[in-house]
Amino acid sequence: MLRNNYFGETKTHYKLYKCGKNWAVMGISLFSLGLGMLVTSQPVSADVTATSTSSSAVRTDAISESSSSAAKAETTSESSSSAVKAETTSASSSSAVKAETTSASSSSAVKAETTSASSSSAVKAETTSASSSSAVKAKTTSASSSSAAKAETAAITTAGVANADSQTSAEVTADSTSTSQVVTNNSNNQNNTAQPAGNSTSTTQSTNQANSQISNQGQLNQFATGFVNRAISEGANVDPNNFTQAQIDALNKLEKYSTTKKNTDTTQFTYYQFQQTADKLAEVDPQYAIPYFKADQIQNLPAATAKDGQTGKVANMDIWDSWPVQDPTTGEIANWNGKQLVIAMMGTPNANSNHLYLLYNDYGGDNFAGWKNAGDIFAGYRGDKKTGLEIFGDQEWSGSAYPLDDGSIQLFYTHSKYETKTINHQNHQRIATANLKMKLNADGTISIASVDNDHTLFKGKDNASANGTHYQTFDQWAHNVTMFDGHKEDFGGADNFAMRDPHIVKDSQGNRYLVFEASTGDDDYQSEDQIYDLRNYGGNAKFQLESLFNLINNDYSVKDKVTGKMIKIGRDMRVRASQANAAIGIIKLGGTENNPTVAEVYDPIISAVMVSDEIERPDIVKIGDTYYLFAASRLNRGTNDAAWRKANDKVGDNVVTLGWYSKDLTKGFKPLNGNGVVLTSTVPANWRTATYSYYAVPTRSTDPRFKNTVLITAYMTNRNRVADYRNKDGKAVLDPDFIQENNGEHNSTWAPSFLLRVNPDGTTRVLPYVTNQGVWDFNNATKLNTNIMTAKADEAYLPWEKGVPFDNGSILGSGQDWVDSMPSDPYTPTAPTAPTAPTAPTAPTAPTAPTAPTAPTAPTAPTAPTAPTAPTAPTAPTAPTAPTAPTAPTAPTAPTAPTAPTAPTAPTAPTAPTAPTAPTAPINPSQPTTPTKPVQAGQAAATNFVDQRLPQTGETDQQHMTLSGLLLLAMSSLLGLFGMTKRQRKE
């Protein structure tokens, strides 16, 4: 009974508990829901911030560093792979983009203003790009591009051709900002140009004429295109739109003739260096300017009044090209039995008498009047009188000489013979040699006993062919035909043949070489093709382009100084450039010293092909371990008519000395002063003090003021009595009576010598030290002549010479009348002060006597060791303890009985349905509803409607949700009370 009551009460209690529990749970749930609705009141906008989109259309202005799709938008992106149509901040995109977007990745079509580092698709936007491989039509700043672009583009690198002020690897038809070389080009269609999309800021110089709209560029090859744009970037004032067909044809020839193999051992005297030389001359730069000499102090050489070997009559002869008998290794003046010897070209004025004479003076002397004449070396005239060409027969021109151990002199000279069978009837020049047996007479005079082994040594041929490989031969030159405008071009005196002026040099091993004036042979021959070889020009692309166009322009004109009219010089320059091929050659000698032969022919050490047709009288001076090469030239033998005419207008003459230096005698010469100019003329060619044919010799002075100097010698007063002409009724007249009234004839004579410093760094400077006339050996006894040098130009001419017109053709070869001009006074450097004597070093103080070492102290006796202590006895070990017995295991506990399962609970009764709520009031049509903002594709939309206004009541969604929460709280409370009451009733 007790058991039954127990289980019955337990079951009833459990049912009551479970029923109350259900009501409590329902109340708690409703309470929580209501509380949540009250708390959740944060406003949420329908605008979406998305961190990732993958498949939606976006329209955006973006900034892009990398783009591989077609773009037409303002875009900033690192990578784009989609079309974007949204205001989106995205790290990755793979859909179409057409919006204002900041994107890190994009690979599809983009229509935006884009700043991109990489692009591989068609882009039509204002774009700043570092890399592009697609067609681009945008404002673009690009570091690399491989696609066709039509945009204002800034390019940093290129792999192709572009038609814009940019450098890319594709065709670009827009303005651009570029930090690299500009390249412009169209397709083959001449009219294939594009309008720029806008303006840009450029770090590359360009002109308005070539802003990427170059209609003629389609006719230019890639080499010409790059060249034109280099010139434009350097400031060339050209408009490619206006290129003539002749200019285009010339530009397209550049690649062919500028890339052919050329000898690297030969140093090119360039068109630019020629220009610099002319400029320095016109500036009367004191670094190069020849000193002024007082005209009234200049005298004829007494030794030049002698028997003319050609006419057989005594005459006051002109003297011009001269050289000393030198040591071929050191270059110093040789001491031949106490005499210094000089060989000179001399002849009667206006008689075309050109022969070699031997002059001598005391060794080391500087007395101008002390020079004596041993007579004509080759014992008179060797012309062919039967032909009636007595004055045009064999002649001897400039050369060099050195003494042999047997007392003879080995002479190298130019043997010239006038040829009547050539096109231009010029002198046939060849290098010759002869051995001179000398005789010292009892009265101290010198005579020539015999001339032995006189023979031609070299004519330019170095193989079995008729033409010279390294150097032009006379036959090669004589049969040369130059074609211009479809007809034969007459030489007109512009094309000169040269095989002359041999200069002997020995190296430290005793090998003998001849350096000489020549013309280039087949390896680098004269022709119009040389005009299209940019290596002949030097300078930058701007200078090259402008010079090229001047050379090919027949209408190129300058103002004539005499008439004031413009005269065309373009065609003359073009002809000259096609024929100019001056060179300085070198050969190695074999055979014996008194009967030498040619052992080896080398490439020219200097070439002026296309630039000048005459660089003459080379001589070499060795200072230390460096060879210094000097040569004279008249600039009017060059091809830049405008340059030398400018010099002539300013100074009245255009003669110069050029120079180079090298450690190797046969190659590798560098221009002195960086441009090759060493000396420039300072007075008009018809003045008494005009000089030419400069020849450098080493100095022997130990004065520190003259360290690293060479002595410059020259002749003074141009030949054929130019200085005796006076102005009569506006014409230059040679009046014998006037000449006698003014101290007789003023012939060519030796000039005062002066010093040139040659610095180890390859620079030079004219020094203000001048000697007497005719000094060849500058030593410690040489006197400086301060009375003959002047700083005033108006003291450098005779009273009747100023303003006298003269035939420049007789002096300079131009065949034009010139009125000389008063040159400006150059800066005359003051003589450096003599170095102060070094102070005598103070006598060193006597060293103090060393102190005697102290005697060593006696060592102390060692202490006896103490006796060791006896060891202590070891302690005995303790016995081990016995182990403890193990404890017995405890018995296991019995398992507990399982609990009986509880009876299942009775199911709860279903709850009664709630009454339906009253219907809401209808919507007021006068109150519009607020449309929700649509969620754009590709955005993760949130579904929170707090703060939305309800259309039925006009209340906000937040107010409605708050009321609902309060109602739910109230219902949960009622249900809880109901459950508790029911439980009490059951109990």
Concise account of the structure shown:
This protein is of the alpha+beta class and 987 residues long.
Can you describe this structure?
This protein is α+β, with helices and mostly antiparallel strands. Helices cover 16% and strands 25% of the residues. The chain is built from twelve helices and 47 strands. Strands 12, 26, 27, 30, 31 and 32 form a six-stranded mixed β-sheet that branches. Strands 3-4-2-5-7 form a five-stranded parallel β-sheet, with no helix packed on it. Strands 33, 34, 35, 36 and 37 form a five-stranded antiparallel β-sheet that branches. Helix 1 packs antiparallel against helix 12 (957-986), helix 2 crosses helix 7 (541-551) and helix 5 (271-283) runs parallel beside helix 9 (641-651). The chain is extended, with a radius of gyration of 53 Å. The relative contact order is 0.10.
